[in-house]
Every structure is written in structure tokens, then in C-alpha cells.
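Bumping with the actual sequence this time:
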Amino acid sequence: MESEQVQDKIEVQPSAEGKVPDARHTSITGAMSRSWASFRRGLSLTVEFARRLDPLSATGNVSGKREIFLLFFIPVLCFCGVLTAAWLAGVAYAPGCNSASNFIANLFFQPTRDSTCRFVPFLSDVPMIILSITSPFAFVAYRLLRRRLASLFNALKSTGLLLNSHESTSKISGGIERLERVVDLSPVRWIGIFSASVAMTTWLYWRNLREGDLFNTLATTAADGSTNTAQLRDSWWANYHHHPLLAALCVFIGSIGVMYALRAGWLYLRLGFVLWATRKTTPEDLPIHYVPRWQDKSYGWSPVTGVLMLVYVSTINFGISMVSVFDMLRNEKWTLAVAGAFTLLGIVSNLTIIWTSIHRILAAHSAVGVRLRKELSDRTAPPTLTPEEAFFARQELATWRRIPVASFVGSAIKILPGLYALVQFARILFT
């Protein structure tokens, strides 16, 4: 009782300005400071997590298992992030649209079903679903390809394919270093290319919102012939009028994909220049050595075939992304024509680089086989192989593969997705 009386007599002291502190204001300020501290800790953990996932931040060679993990995990993580944001906004899913089921039916060349959509959620926007996966895939594939190229010289030496004593070895090392310097971006150029990517993505977003074919596909036709296309366009999950944060997220992810598609295109262009500049180099001039299959299943060429496989996978990813863009802009013929020309140029140039590289690998591999047969049959020349190496070399020459790959079946399976993507690309472009 006495404590309550004492408490009632306590007077709140005014502040220096003569105002009484507001308890509510103090609690809000404390909550804001705690939220800011939590945000900073979360941002720091996110940056550290991204740094650990970045292929170029690791030391040494990136293992094949880690490459596969990064190529699948980061795109899936991005897709789940967009899906979560749409779910929190209440625009992740709506029954009756049949967009995803119709997309799967198209993949297997099956008839589609009518839509009864009242609004367009994220899971019914198949082009955006694809781009939410292919955009981060382009980022990861580019970074892995850069790391493969940076470590290519040391990887070829570790397999035993390159001879350290040959004078051309230093030229190869210097050429790779010059390529790395050319494709690197200064901060100013990085900001410039990212700004251009944001502008291009914003333009694509705007054209999709105004003229996107998705809304016509999901629209229903009433008895009087009218459609609800305008209603679907207004209720699109990424419409900036109603969901500005989702629209910004959509543009940001698309900008990442455009940026690394442009950077990959510049890298492939420089690789093309290298192949053109060395077109007169004969296989006999290359400092390559015989590598037994027990040491490397691809006769020492596995680092090079790994680079080519990443280029091939990036080309497939680029083609799938452009198929999504075609599907969005199907109503605009001139935009479709420009995008089609851009896509054909990118795919044809990438496949040309791959085919030219494979042709040179086959020629060099054949030259190694001819040189090995000549060395084993010439008894007068000083031997460069030990008796054990010569014994295994004679056995391998009996089953010498013209194509230096570990498995023909595995290589064929890796090519099939690209052929299927080409079929789908033709269907979207000509139907």
C-alpha cells in the first residue's frame, strides 16, 4: 500500500527541452533499432552465404559435384524465393488457370484444356517461372565457366596433357591470362552494363504487361464474345500498380539474367577471336602429350571438355530463356523478329565455337595417336616412355577412341536436352 502511494507521488522529470519523454516513442525507437540490427546481421549472413556459394571465391579447382550442386541449388533457391514472396502477397496460386498443366501438355505434345482464371498468379505465369530459374542459372554458369578458364592451364598440366618443357606452353598460359583481362569489368563498366540490363528488362516487362500473350491465353470468352483479358492483365501477380515490390523483384532477377547473358556473349566473342587467330596452328605444333586412360578417362582432355560442356549448357539455358521471351511477346511481330534474330545469332555462334573446338580436339587427339604409334614402332629413336608405360600404351592403342570422351552414351545423353530445346524453340517460333 505504501509502495503504491510512493509510486503515485513520483513525478516524471521533464527533458532538457521541457518536454516529457513519450514512452510509446521510446518503444518504437527501440524496436526500429533492433530491427535495423537484425537486418544488418541478416544481410551480413546473406553476403557471406553468397560468397561461399560463388565459384570464383573458392580456392583451387571446383569439383564436378560442387558445380552440379551450384547449377541446380541456386536457381531452385531463386525460384523458391520468388514463390515465397508471391505467397506472402497472396498471389502465388489460383485454381482453374490450368497454365502449368497446359505447359506440361505442350512439352509432351498433348492437347491443352481451357482456362477459368480470374487473376494471374505466379504459378500460372510459366514464362516468368522459367526466367526465375534460367536467370540465376546464367549467373552461375558464367561464373563457373570463368573459373574453368582461369584454371584451365594448370588443369591440363595436372592431367599430363601439356608438356612443361615445350615453348608453346608459355604462349597458351599467356593467352588465357590475356583473355581473363579482356573479359574482366571495371566498376564503371559493371555499373554501365547492369544499368543497360535493367533498362532492357524494364522494357520487356512493360511490353509484357501491355501486350503479353499470357493474358490472351488464360482469358475466357463470354457468350457475347467479350473476354476478361483486361481483368487478367490488371490482376497480374507482378503488376506494379498493385504489387510494386514483386514487380521490382521480377525486373531485378530478369536484369541478372540479361547482364550475364551479355557478359557470356562477350566472352564467347573473345573465344571466337582466339580460335580464329590460331586457325593456322597445326596439331603437331601443340605441346600435347599422351595421357593413358587410367590416368584420365578422356586422355587428358577432361578440363577442355568440361569447359565446352558449360558453354553447351549455357547455350541451352539461353535458348530456353528466349523461348520464354517469345511466348511473352508473341503478339508483337517486330519484337519477335528482333528477339529471334538475336537468339539465332547467339545460338549459332555458340554452337560454332563448340564445333570448332571439338574439331581441333579431334585433330590433336588423332595426332597424339599417330605420334604414339610411330614412337612405339621406331626402335632406333630414344624412348620417351618407360617399359611399363609402353606396355599399357600398346594395349590402349588397340582400343584407341577417336573421340576423347569418357563415355559415348553419357555424352549422347548430355546432348539430348539441347536437341529437345531446339524442337521447342522451332515450335514457338513458327506456330
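The C-alpha cells above came from a reply further down the thread. The chain has 15 helices and no strands.
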